[in-house]
Predict the structure.
Amino acid sequence: RKQAETQLKYLSLHDPLTGLYNRNYFEEKMRRLESGRNEPAGVIVCDIDGLKLVNDTMGHEKGDLLLVAAARALKESFRDEGVVARIGGDEFAALVTGNNVMAMESMCERIHSVIKNYNKSNPELPLKQNVPGKAPPQ
């Protein structure tokens, strides 16, 4: 019974496909931050461009592979530095506390680097990188 309770709690806080935290957990963390002490915090939000097209043309299995790849890239990029969650179908967010703007920019660069390495190894199903206001990294 204890094991079943633990499993149910895990499933209520995590996305079953990616293993990341889910939107409910992410929003709860945000609420706690808003009502807590004035600690600096940053949020990085990203999504997978063209996921619907991949699902429609290559099948949902390939789309799921992209979602899992994006989740892994974010997990690797943030390690234990923040809360990474799948907050929507193709949307992800990371909540990081106690960092300044330069640290957040460094984390974004880390994401780009991890994705670039993933794309080198997976040219048949790459993760697109696009930052509003910036040219995509080459």
